[in-house]
Specification:
With about 210 residues, the protein is mainly α. The protein is built from 7 helices and no strands. Helix 4 runs parallel beside helix 6, helix 4 runs antiparallel to helix 7 and helix 6 runs antiparallel to helix 7.
C-alpha cells in the first residue's frame, strides 16, 4: 500500500516518506518536552512574577499545538494530501497568533500593578535547558520542512527557535532586573509578541519554509 501511494505521488519518494516519519517523530518528542517545559515555566514565572517567563511558559502550549498539527499532518492518508498541508499551515499560523495578545495584555496588567520580575533558580534552569535544546529541534524541523515542501513543519521549527529566543530574553531580563533594569522584561515580552505576529502572517501565506 505505501508503494502504491508513492507511485500515485511521484514526488513522495521513499526518502520523502522517511523524512515525513522523522518530522512526525520529532513533533511527538517535542510534545513530551513541552509538557514539562510549560509546567515548570509557568511555575517559575508565577514565583518570579515575570511576564516574559509566564509568557514563555504559555508559548510552550502554543508550540505544543503546532506539534500536534504536524503529527496530524503526517498521519495516515493525510501524509500525501496537499489539502492537509494547506490546512496544517493555516492552523500553525493561527497558533502563532494566539500568543501575541496574551503577552501584550499581561504586560499592560503587570505595569499597571507595578509588578517586577524576581530571578528564581527554577526559572533559570528551565530556560537554560530550553535555550540549549530548542535550537537543535527547530533547525532540524526547518530543514525537514524544506525537504518535504511543508510550511507547517518549517513553521513548527520556527516556533521552536522563537522559544529559544524567548528563553534567552527571559534569562537576560531576569539578570538585568537585578541591576534595576526592570523594564527589560516587559519590553522583551512585547518584542516577542511582534515576532509571533509576523511569523504567523508568514506561515498563513505559506512562506515559513523560505526564510
Amino acid at each position: 500500500m505505501p508503494e502504491q501511494r508513492v507511485h500515485a505521488h511521484p514526488a513522495a519518494s521513499a526518502a520523502w516518506l522517511r523524512a515525513a516519519r522523522v518530522a512526525r517523530s520529532l513533533s511527538v518528542l517535542t510534545l513530551v518536552w513541552l509538557g514539562v517545559e510549560s509546567t515548570l515555566g509557568l511555575a517559575a514565572g508565577l514565583e518570579a512574577h515575570s511576564v516574559a517567563l509566564i509568557g514563555w511558559g504559555l508559548s510552550a502550549l502554543v508550540e505544543a499545538a503546532a506539534s500536534l498539527i504536524v503529527v496530524w499532518r503526517f498521519t495516515g492518508s493525510r501524509t500525501l494530501s496537499p489539502s492537509a498541508e494547506r490546512r496544517a499551515g493555516r492552523a500553525v499560523a493561527v497558533s502563532f497568533w494566539l500568543l501575541a495578545p496574551y503577552l501584550v495584555v499581561h504586560v499592560a496588567h503587570d505595569l499597571d500593578a507595578g509588578h517586577r520580575a524576581v530571578p528564581t533558580v527554577l526559572g533559570i534552569v528551565v530556560t537554560a535547558v530550553s535555550l540549549a535544546s530548542m535550537p537543535v529541534l527547530g533547525l532540524a524541523k526547518r530543514r525537514l520542512g524544506r525537504r518535504l515542501g511543508s510550511p507547517a513543519t518549517s513553521g513548527e521549527g520556527t516556533q521552536n527557535l522563537i522559544c529559544a529566543a524567548m528563553a534567552a530574553g527571559v534569562l537576560t531580563g531576569l539578570w538585568l532586573n537585578t541591576l534595576g533594569w526592570w523594564w527589560v522584561d516587559p519590553v522583551m515580552a512585547v518584542a516577542l509578541a511582534a515576532v509571533a505576529t509576523r511569523e504567523g502572517t508568514r506561515a498563513w501565506r505559506g512562506h515559513s519554509c523560505c526564510h
